[in-house]
Amino acid sequence: MNKCSESYYPFIGKKKHKFRYLFLFLYTITIPNLFSQIQEAAYSSPPSQMEVQVTQPLSFGSFSPGFSGGDIIVSPYGNRTVTGTIVAFPDITSLPARFEVRLIPNRIVHIVLPTDATLTHTEGKGKMTVINFTSDKPGNSFITTTGNPFINPVYIGATLKVQSFTVNPPGNYRGTFTVTFVRE
Questions:
Q1: Nearest in space to 175 (alpha carbons), one of 125, 94, 133, 116
Q2: Contact status, residue 180 vs residue 21, Cβ threshold 8 Å
């Protein structure tokens, strides 16, 4: 089994693709989609080395934690569920993270997800924990596709643990998580 790892921007020729992926948590503040300028490229042949790109950030949307907080769950399919006293606002769409994996067809790729991650208020006023990362691939594995441009999308969701308004004040929260793609 060959492992593949890379930093945020992939470099061809490496055997292990490991991502330190920045994601943003928006809490009553609207920002433009940072990845709206991504263009799909047409490829004539599949790469022999795995190539992975991040094409969409994980976002939990905009909300208020209410009196005691709760959980915000974003599924790999983009569904958002809230628990506790959290009030979800519809102004910012929640999004699963999206990765594009390119590789020779009919190869098995395994996805290694993190156990947790921390989001920190941009002004240092609080922290939140992200847990239960999940992918849209059964068993966190898939077989690469045969059609040009040989792109295999992978969607990743997670659960955000939110505390009370006093512990998690309004503002922007940022953090990173690492996803490893391992090819056989």
A1: 116
A2: no
Domain enclosing residue 112, as ranges: 2-12+21-183
Local structure of 80: helix, strand or coil? strand
From CA 92, how far away is CA 29, in angstroms rounded? 8
Phi, psi of 165 (to 5 degrees): -55, -35
**How many helices and strands in the chain, by DSSP H and E?**
0, 14
Question: Each residue of 93-102: pLDDT tens digit?
Answer: 899 999 999 9
Helix, strand, coil distribution of the chain in percent, nearest 5: 0, 50, 50
Q: How many residues does the chain have?
A: 184
Rounded Cα distance between 31 and 9, Å, is 23
Q: For residues 17, 59, 76 and 112, what is the CA-based torsion angle, rounded to 10 degrees?
A: 30
Q: Could you report the per-residue pLDDT of 40-91, keeping only the tens digit for each?
A: 344 456 778 899 999 999 999 999 998 999 999 999 999 999 999 999 998 7
Q: If we measure between CA atoms, which residue out of 34, 27, 76, 41 comes closest to residue 56?
A: 34
What is the number of domains present in the chain?
Answer: 1
